[in-house]
Tumor necrosis factor receptor superfamily member 12A (Collichthys lucidus), 102 residues
Amino acid sequence: MSDVSPCAGQCGNSEFWNSDGDVCVPCATCKQYPKTPSCNTCKSTDESSDVWKLAAITSFSVLAVVLVGAALIIGVMVHRRKSNKRPLREPIEETAGPLYQA
């Protein structure tokens, strides 16, 4: 006779089989009681959630940098276009003063 119950295969992805109580136990129990037997059979959900958080933070940071950069570039282009539309001033008259005697 084997020690594993036929019900052990019916546990969900976030559960493990507890042979003492003959029940499926949620892996969340392992956070509260880390020394529980068979906790090592649980797939760590913390690592995957951390990866998603890191990916989300990184992508939003890149998006923010791109948007700020685009806004700055557009602002500089608009400023240059407006400054080029100013009427031309009178040309500076060059005079040969005492500093420029030949």
